[in-house]
Design brief:
Helix content: 25-40%
Order of helices and strands: EHEEEHEHEEHEEHEHEEHHH
Structural class: alpha/beta
CATH architecture of the largest domain: 3-Layer(aba) Sandwich
Number of helices: 9
CATH class of the largest domain: Alpha Beta
Number of strands: 12
Strand order of the largest sheet: 2-1-3-4-5-6
Shape: globular
Number of domains: 2
């Protein structure tokens, strides 16, 4: 079976999704072919109709913003909807210009895509619910994302506060944007106080220095092995994100057996079992988020137990093999259906 995965480079989790899906499918014996397009095409997705589909393609699998442009006659179209931006998030995490772009353009493109799709995939039930509330949709399946739990894994056991002058080490991994909560970072750091050492790691959009005294350590452009070690060197992983479709960094932290403190938002609430593998606070309540961090810093054994529970969930509830098998089953179902219709 041959699957075509055309995608626009966004410097975000959607890029990670396509790469991981393609690599995993190839291990399952699927001929998965990625094709990357420059970010400038995001504004003109209709022009991507010229893209030549690889010969012998059985399935086209694409994101929801540009999916309509890659629909081809007689070939089933699978669409992944990452997170809903249509009629949501203003003014909490987007500017007026973003609101206009998302509502007037992205929403229209997604309606065209969903109308052409043979199957729709989301990565979290809460994200799926947002799409259901705003669009008429084809059959939808929730197939969770995953991380490589052999690479993203706990390091040697060590006590909390074992370095950094006894300060509890917090880690934030995210691109610099309002959706990721970067505008809350300084206020969050002030609410934490001096007992915490804060490390910020840029996401795929490297070079985004926050330029604030409240951050103790800043890193960008890390290799995967360096990122894994950074997770292991932390005591608590924090997400300031206001909205997610899934939350790869949260799952990476869980796989590394680190407790997660985050806002109770779409995507993340599907990953973190609050009170068991981490703590969730109301969105934008940075004081409550800081209080959650202080609670874990005061109860290091509880924090360690939460990290271990997160590791267990990453292995059992977010299994790479189970998710990939569901994709393969979906593709085969669509190919068989298409063949039956053709005959």
């Amino acid at each position: 079976m041959r699957v075509w995965l055309p995608a626009i480079r966004a410097g975000s989790g959607s890029d990670v999704y396509v790469r991981r899906l393609a690599a995993g499918l190839r291990e399952f014996g699927i001929d998965a072919r990625e094709q990357w397009f420059d970010a400038r095409w995001e504004l003109f997705p209709q022009r991507l109709r010229w893209a030549e589909m690889p010969a012998g393609t059985d399935i086209v699998h694409v994101g929801s913003w540009q999916g309509f442009a890659f629909a081809r006659p007689g070939v089933p179209l699978v669409v992944t909807a990452f997170h809903n931006v249509y009629r949501s998030g203003y003014p909490q995490w987007k500017s007026l210009a973003q609101k206009i772009y998302h509502d007037a353009f992205v929403g229209r493109w997604e309606r065209k895509t969903f109308a052409r799709a043979d199957a729709l995939v989301t990565m979290a039930e809460s994200a799926a619910q947002e799409f259901r509330e705003r669009f008429e949709l084809p059959p939808m399946r929730v197939i969770a994302g995953w991380v490589d739990t052999q690479r993203f894994s706990p390091g040697p056991a060590r006590p909390m506060d074992s370095s950094r002058g006894g300060r509890t080490r917090l880690l934030i991994v995210a691109n610099r944007s309002r959706r990721k909560g970067f505008d809350l970072l300084a206020r969050f750091a002030r609410s934490l106080g001096p007992r915490f050492h804060i490390t910020v790691v840029a996401g795929l959009r490297a070079g985004q220095r926050p330029g604030m005294a409240e951050v103790d350590c800043w890193a960008s452009g890390l290799s995967e092995s360096e990122l894994v070690q950074t997770y292991r060197d932390s005591d608590i992983v924090v997400s300031l994100s206001r909205h997610e479709g899934f939350g790869y960094t949260v799952l990476e932290a869980m796989a590394c057996a680190r407790p997660v403190v985050a806002f109770d938002v779409t995507g993340i609430r599907d990953l973190v079992a609050s009170g068991r593998s981490g703590l969730l606070a109301a969105v934008d309540d940075v004081d409550a988020l800081a209080a959650c961090c202080a609670e874990l810093a005061d109860q290091p054994q509880r924090a360690i137990a939460m990290g271990l529970e997160g590791r267990r969930l990453s292995l059992e509830a977010f299994s790479r093999e189970a998710s990939l098998a569901r994709y393969v089953d979906l593709y085969r179902e669509l190919v068989l259906r298409s063949a039956g219709q053709a005959s």
